[in-house]
Amino acid sequence: MSLRLFTPGDADDLYAYQSLPTVARYLYRPAHTRERSEQVAAERAAHSVWSADGDKLALAVCRRDEPGLLGEVTLTLAHARAAQAEIGWTLHPRRQGHGYATEAARALAGFAFDKLGVHRLYARLDVENTGSARVCERLGMRREAHLVENDLDGDRWGSEYIYAALAADMDGRADRLSH
């Protein structure tokens, strides 16, 4: 598995999974149209700033031995002064269950703590997204909150878990995050 910057040419691969209702349901937004996938690929390819609240780093998750995307990992600077960032991951459903999300999230978390100086890293996820909860736990994140019916997705109320880890929590576990 490898991580790389997005290119505008990734639009087709993005659309292949971002257009699926089963994927979009956990992303707090509607499924992407083909046009939206093109726009997102272009925006991600052009954006590399990491200094202000809301700045986002999105990386393509790929296999070294085959073309195309497995999915993506993202890091959003939630609070620059407090050095807090939100981590997320999305994989094509055909690529789930093979450890790619854990491997990619572990690499991005290590980068966030070691290179970007993040103090606190957190993930927000739908309580029904058990796969992502397992990824958080494999990363050594703790469940800090269970928000009950805090999001209205169409006609369905959704509940959310917040997982987090501090840089200090990961001291002595650098090999766990960097491999």
Automatic annotation (TrEMBL):
Q: Which residues form a coiled coil?
A: none
Q: Pfam families given for it?
A: Acetyltransf_3 (PF13302)
Q: What SUPFAM superfamilies does UniProt report for this protein, alphabetically?
A: Acyl-CoA N-acyltransferases (Nat)
The chain positions of domain N-acetyltransferase read 1-168
Name assigned to this protein: GNAT family N-acetyltransferase
